[in-house]
Amino acid sequence: MRSSEGMVETARIRDWHNFVKLGINSVDGKVEWHQMPSVTVIITLLTLVTSTATLNVLIWSSTMGQSHINFIGNIADTLQEDGHNVTLLFVELDPDYTIDTGTNLVKHIIRYSSPYYNSADWRSLTFKRPTVFNSILGMNFIDLIKIQMYTYRICRGMLEDPRLIPLLRDSKFDLGIFEMFHSCPAGIMELAGIPKTMLVSAIGIGYQHYRLLGMEKQSSFVPDNYIKCGARMSFLERLYNVFINGCAYIFANIFEYCEQSLFEEKFPGFRSLHDLIRLKTL
């Protein structure tokens, strides 16, 4: 004989199975079950299936290294495989990574190179040379300044391109996705009329993410992304970590101000890039 628990479980499964076949009428507070027509069941199931929205997605991929390209490419492939319409905006920074887009499924790819930026300059960065492994303090701050100069020139080129922004606007994207290397993508996506954006990161949470979320970074014991210290830091290493975070705060605001000035020069009264990212990001 079956146990009472087994009989109860069987009854539950039977009731769940009948859920899609039975309807409920409530008359004078009484619940009456009746057999639903097959057509009603089919229409109900079709409604559930077709209610899933297909999004038109723009994904910004900057060629800052193959790992970043692959990271963004995997996101693009996942969305494309799920049935969304994905467009990859492939922005050239590193001339050594211009062929492999990191995606196998996305067919609509827009490649962009700025007339104000010489991609050969990227090879002057420390982390493009073997000397990066002999760095004493971690990532060279001169490299960070150079990268922001390069992205500034790319942003300027995009704003002056007569075809790019109209092309993006005509595509009527529902969602824009980008890594937070700089603030320009938020402004370009605003001009393209994209209502929502999403930040992604291949290197964890950076200073910009803390700032956008309104959080204070615990710089006394959380290692910065650009230093060589591990999770266990000495007093001097903690002091250095606080110093680096302070520098990051200053540089981040300077770089954002420079890109903000580009948009305001072209479009007077343009919204704050910081606010665009903070308010439109999912």
Task: Report on the architecture of this protein.
With 282 residues, this protein is an alpha/beta fold. It has two domains: 4-50, no CATH class; 56-280, Rossmann fold. It is built from nine helices and seven strands; from the N terminus they run αββαβαββααβαβααα. The protein has a five-stranded parallel β-sheet, with helices on both faces. Strands 1-2 form a two-stranded antiparallel sheet. The radius of gyration is 26 Å and the shape is globular. The model is unreliable at 19-27 (pLDDT under 50).
Kindly summarize this structure in a few lines:
The protein has nine helices and seven strands; from the N terminus they run H-E-E-H-E-H-E-E-H-H-E-H-E-H-H-H. It is of the alpha/beta class and 282 residues long.
Largest sheet: 5 strands, parallel
Number of strands: 7
CATH topology of the largest domain: Rossmann fold
Please state the average pLDDT score: 80
Order of helices and strands: HEEHEHEEHHEHEHHH
Give the fraction of residues assigned to helices: 40-55%
Rg from Cα: 26 Å
Estimated share of beta-strand residues:
5-15%
| CATH domain class name of the largest domain | Alpha Beta
Q: What's the end-to-end separation, in Å?
A: 55 Å
- Provide the low-confidence segments as ranges: 19-27
Q: Determine the CATH superfamily of the largest domain.
A: Nucleotide-binding domain of ferredoxin-NADP reductase (FNR) module
Overall morphology: globular
Structural class: alpha/beta
As laid out across the biggest beta sheet, the strand order is 5-4-3-6-7
Number of distinct helices: 9
CATH architecture of the largest domain: 3-Layer(aba) Sandwich
